[in-house]
Amino acid sequence: MEDCIFCKIVKGDLPCFKVYEDEKVLAFEDINPVSQGHTLIIPKRHAENLWEVPEDDLAAIHAASKRVIAAMRKALDPVGVALLQLNGRGVNQVVMHYHLHLMPRSRDEPPLPVTSWELKEGDMDSIREVSKRIAAAIAE
Ligand code: AMP
Ligand code: ZN
Q1: Pocket lining for ligand 1, CB < 6 angstroms
Q2: How far away, in angstroms, is 45 Cα from ligand 2 center?
């Protein structure tokens, strides 16, 4: 895609801090890191989001994420690694080329905002009702 910033990185028209590459995927550092080592993994083929990304690219992304977080464990000794992936502007997806965030948290860093929401007990009737709607849509 011509005006896609991540496609430009794949083509080499824009620079990146690359950490991993194979035939299908590229992993590089996020330039606005939430934590030290915050890395993005993308498919080389443009797809906007999880609805669009082909399953073979998705499988390659997840296999690569396993390799990269293994390397993070060796290189950074994090207390944990959070994975996050946003689909749609309504949930603050900003770059419209599928990307999986890998966010390691080191011992001396504060909790990651995406992992520290407050748990509030839900309404069981409402949870049951929404589960039925999603399950019915899968069965369609
Ligand atoms: P989002 O679409 O909200 O999941 O996040 C897009 C992410 O891409 C943000 O965390 C940005 O910091 C990151 N980002 C945007 N442009 C670049 C770039 N040129 N190189 C590396 N990361 C980028
Ligand atoms: Zn793209």
Answers
A1: 5, 14, 16, 30-32, 40, 86, 92-95
A2: 7
Residues acting as catalytic residues: 99
- Return the ∠ at Cα 7 (arms to 6 and 8), rounded to 5°: 85
CA-32 nearest atom, ligand 1: 12
Q: pLDDT tens digits, residue range 71-122?
A: 999 999 999 999 999 999 999 999 999 999 999 999 999 999 889 889 999 9
Number of domains making up the chain: 1
Dihedral of alpha carbons 63, 31, 34, 6, sign: negative
CATH number at residue 19: 3.30.428.10
Residue-wise pLDDT tens digits, 21-72: 999 999 999 999 999 999 999 999 999 999 999 999 999 999 999 999 999 9
Strand partners, 43: 25
**Which range of residues forms the domain containing residue 34?**
5-139
Compute the distance from residue 123 Cα to the ligand 2 centre, in Å.
40
- pLDDT tens track for 6-21: 999 999 999 999 999 9
- Helix, strand or coil for residue 93? coil
Ligand number, closest to the Cα atom of 47 = 2
